[in-house]
Design brief:
CATH topology of the largest domain in chain B: Rossmann fold
Order of helices and strands of chain A: EHEHEHEEHHEHHEEHHHHEHHEEEH
Shape of chain A: elongated
Structural class of chain B: alpha/beta
Helix content of chain A: 25-40%
Distance between the termini of chain B: 12 Å
Distance between the termini of chain A: 35 Å
Structural class of chain A: alpha/beta
Shape of chain B: globular
CATH architecture of the largest domain in chain B: 3-Layer(aba) Sandwich
Number of helices of chain B: 19
Number of strands of chain A: 12
Strand content of chain B: 5-15%
Number of strands of chain B: 12
Strand order of the largest sheet of chain B: 6-5-4-1-2-3-12
Number of domains of chain B: 2
Radius of gyration of chain A: 25 Å
Oligomer: heterodimer
CATH class of the largest domain in chain A: Alpha Beta
CATH topology of the largest domain in chain A: Rossmann fold
CATH class of the largest domain in chain B: Alpha Beta
Strand order of the largest sheet of chain A: 3-2-1-4-5-6
Largest sheet of chain B: 7 strands, mixed
Number of helices of chain A: 14
């Protein structure tokens, strides 16, 4: 897959011919990696020291900056690297040639303007371009906190937690920014004009809030707090220990509970579990301690993959609590062609997650992450010829 | 003001969906003007309808219970509801007439379920070659794959895809992401990308396509760098509470009040100098006995600060716990440090930035003519913005008009479908509802125009 050093979009790729510029920042890369694999020419404008992601751990064994960061190796796939001095005329000329710009302006924020009539300019900021906190600084953790997501994650007797080390809020923001950019291109088909997109990281992640959201809480007047790794609605509902970690069991439908009850009776010999009264999830919540105790008798004797496969065979929604090591060996991902074989002159051969969906034939094509400045001459020549 | 045309005006989308993953995608399409027609059944309603509302669990509301869930506007704002019992052949025929005139079919039903209904990709694409068929089942549409027949909800996709194992503190069992389901929304965002890409492709080739998206695969990819790390070095990334692999200090610190917290990220050395000065000015009495932060060369780098993270946490917590979360955030932001109160749901309602952007709006609809509360859409296009027209459709609200104008059925045919129980129209059309908090909408400034 990713051996070629330069992307060469084909006509079969839906976004071939589109010029996209990404400036230094953390909150668009996840999505532009995919856009580039669908044919868009995504040029990362890097300062001479390299893009922020080049400096972030983890690094491939025996490597370092600027080529060895696995963040860069993953998120810059399919893109081109152009080194320019920030604020230079060369940078300005490249920006002016783009159909779409992804920018993360730092405070004090000045509302940007597209550089030409047909340009879509996506300004990504922690809290939006206007309002009392428009100049506040942000981070992945701050986005979780501001979007209401941290408060409900974790155990009630410990502080709220977030998926901050995964940069997940930034990836969600990137996908929202991409959706907005594509939407603006559809608008351009009608109007002939580009426009500014005001993309707030807080709002991007507030979109994930409905399950504990304002309309819900106003309606039932019940405060939503943290409930640890089992949700305070019924049982079994959450994580249960097993021989090699944890499995997730979430039972809503009566039919799924009846399958679970039959299995529990087999394992524990406690016939009372088959009492039809327990088919009501509210009754199981009242008997939470008993149901959890019985469930743990079952789960602690098996591995998470055994619980997953046998539970699913019995038509019970059980999933394993996977680590990255488990996912690297998952048989479904393996069989589905999820992994792409990649090579990289510094990192060496490796496997990388590939296309998130299948579509028309020839839609996707993959290249390795570019070396620092690898495409500077090529892109400057093609994009700014005659200017 | 001149009304701009929204980018997806004229696009016809038929949605056969449940819960969050596909509905969250359809809702964004509808915000930008697409006509999203959700096929719904009274026999097998979307779980979002089944939740209903606590106050509606009385005989008085039994017939309209499925119109009462506060989740409805969160998932189905701006959509039209087409009530069809797809277990009846005549209803499936009507659905196919609708889909024959549609641009997009969007579903997160399992592949066996859509196949049983006769609404599988091969059938519908033969019927309408320009159709974009977008399916996002939990484990993809290939029957040869190991987990193809497996079942999962959004809440147990998060453990499966690796999110739960890395959420929580290293000294205890995983906290997991238990209260909401990130993979559902992430899949919905990928579906938006897939649908718009397929439409772009159709503009060029004239042909529709089948986009098949596995919810499992989309979110696993979010762990990309750590999957590579495990593969290349054998390192399995562990839970780290709120700490960052990059920044230090970073954390969630207690503030004044019960269960009140402030999130703080010192994202670079300049921000550290800001924080160090703030702590030094507060003095050792306010920071657990330490001082001299700014002058300490050992703390000038992230690496040095990471080594002393526990002590910095103690100092920051001592400082923050004597202030409100908002006050702490204001003081930190003033010296260039990223910080924000950890918003609970009640705080979201009065958050100044969300209010600035009118994130929550009361928008009228059939069942709630005085407005029901709708959460926002993050895609803010300055010149061709989306907007909410109605909060959510009542079950079967648009059955007759859509089967007539889009599927081309005659009035007599529609009446017959309704009479034989193959199609539904709204129960008790004259019954209007009000939320228990309806009187607050005006006070909170959430009422008014729908845009």
């Amino acid at each position: 897959m990713t051996t070629p050093s330069s992307p060469s979009p084909t006509a079969a790729q839906p976004w071939a011919g589109l010029k996209v510029v990404e400036r230094d920042g953390l909150c668009s890369s996840y999505a532009t990696r995919l856009w580039a694999a669908l044919g868009a020419e995504v040029v990362v404008l890097e300062p001479p020291g390299g893009h922020a992601y080049r400096h972030l751990p983890p690094f491939a064994p025996g490597t370092g900056e600027p080529e060895g960061s696995l963040w860069w190796a993953f998120l810059a796939q399919n893109k081109r690297s152009v080194v320019v001095e920030p604020g230079s005329d060369a940078e300005q000329a490249l920006l002016a040639a783009a159909d779409v710009v992804f920018d993360e302006p730092a405070p004090p924020v000045v509302t940007p303007t597209p550089l030409h009539d047909r340009q879509v300019y996506v300004a990504i900021t922690p809290f939006g371009l206007h309002g009392p906190r428009a100049n506040w600084r942000g981070s992945d953790l701050v986005a979780w906190a501001a979007a209401g997501l941290s408060y409900v994650t974790g155990f009630p007797d410990r502080p709220p937690v977030a998926l901050s080390s995964m940069n997940f809020a930034s990836h969600v923001t990137a996908m929202q920014a991409l959706g907005a950019a594509m939407m603006a291109l559809f608008a351009r088909k009608q109007t002939g004009r580009g426009q500014l997109v005001d993309l707030s990281m807080q709002q991007a992640n507030a979109a994930l809030h409905p399950e504990v959201g304002v309309p819900l809480v106003l309606d039932d007047a019940v405060h939503r707090g943290r409930s640890g790794n089992r949700r305070a609605v019924s049982r079994p509902w959450g994580l249960y220990p097993c021989t090699d970690g944890y499995a997730s069991i979430i039972i809503v439908q009566p039919a799924h509970w009846m399958n679970m009850a039959a299995w529990l009776v087999e394992v524990t010999g406690v016939d009372a579990l088959a009492d039809p009264a327990f088919n009501d999830m509210a009754v199981r919540w009242e008997a939470a301690e008993f149901i959890d105790d019985m469930t743990e008798q079952l789960t602690t004797g098996m591995s998470k993959q055994e619980l997953f496969v046998e539970g699913q065979r019995r038509n019970i929604p059980i999933t394993p609590v996977n680590t990255v090591a488990d996912l690297g060996r998952d048989p479904h991902l393996e069989a589905s062609g999820f992994w792409l074989d990649a090579d990289h002159p510094v990192i060496g051969p490796h496997r990388s997650p590939g296309a998130p969906f299948s579509g028309g034939s020839g839609w996707w094509s993959w290249t390795r992450a570019p070396l620092l400045g690898e495409h500077t001459d090529d892109v400057v020549a093609r994009w700014t010829a005659g200017s | 003001m001149e009304q701009s045309t929204r980018p997806l005006e004229g696009l016809k989308v038929v949605e056969l969906s449940i819960a969050i993953a596909a509905p969250s995608c359809g809702r964004m399409l509808a915000y930008f003007g697409a006509d999203v027609m959700k096929l719904e059944s009274l026999q097998y309603p979307d779980v979002v309808r089944l939740f209903g509302s606590a106050w509606a669990r009385t005989p008085e509301y039994a017939s309209v219970f499925t119109d009462t869930s506060p989740y409805l506007p969160e998932m189905n704002a701006n959509k039209r509801s087409i009530g069809l019992n797809l277990k009846v052949g005549a209803a499936v025929d009507a659905a196919k007439k609708l889909i024959a005139n549609a641009d997009v079919f969007l579903t997160n039903y399992s592949t066996p379920a859509v196949t049983d209904l006769g609404l599988d990709a091969a059938t519908l694409r033969a019927l309408n070659p320009r159709l974009v068929y977008a399916a996002l089942p939990a484990f993809g549409s290939d029957p040869s794959l190991p987990y193809y027949p497996f079942i999962s909800w959004g809440p147990n996709q998060a453990p499966l895809v690796g999110l739960d194992a890395v959420t929580g503190f290293p000294d205890q069992e995983p906290a997991g992401v238990a209260s909401f389901a990130p993979p559902d929304y992430f899949a919905g965002l990928h579906a938006l990308m897939a649908v718009l890409t397929a439409l772009e492709s159709r503009d060029q080739t004239g042909e529709g396509s089948w986009v098949d998206l596995s919810q499992f695969g989309t979110t696993v990819a979010a762990l990309g760098p750590y999957l590579l790390d495990e593969q290349l070095s054998g390192t399995v990334v562990e839970r780290s509470g709120n700490r960052s692999a990059w920044y230090a200090p970073q954390g969630v610190y207690p503030s004044r009040g019960e269960d009140r917290w402030v999130a703080v990220s010192v994202t670079d050395d300049a921000a550290w100098q800001g924080l160090a000065g703030l702590l030094d000015r507060a003095g050792p009495a306010a920071t657990g006995g330490e001082t001299g932060f700014a002058a300490d060369p050992g703390l000038a780098t992230a690496e040095g600060r990471r080594e002393r993270h526990d002590r910095l946490d103690t100092a920051l917590a001592a400082w923050s716990s004597t202030r409100s979360a908002a006050q702490a955030a204001v003081e930190l932001q003033a010296v260039g440090v990223a910080a924000h109160p950890v918003n609970d749901t009640e705080a979201m309602l009065v958050d100044p930035q969300l209010a600035e952007y009118r994130w929550y709006q009361a928008v009228p609809c059939f069942r709630f003519p005085d407005g029901d509360l709708v959460g926002g859409c993050a895609l803010r296009l300055e010149d061709t913005p989306g907007h909410w027209e109605w909060a959510f459709p009542t079950m079967g609200e648009h059955t007759a008009e859509v089967l007539g104008s889009v599927a081309g059925l005659s009035e007599a045919e529609i009446t017959e479908l309704v009479e034989q129980g193959a199609a539904y129209v709204p129960a008790e059309p004259g019954l209007s509802l009000h939320r228990p908090y309806q009187h607050l909408l005006g006070l909170l400034g959430l009422k008014g125009a729908s845009r």
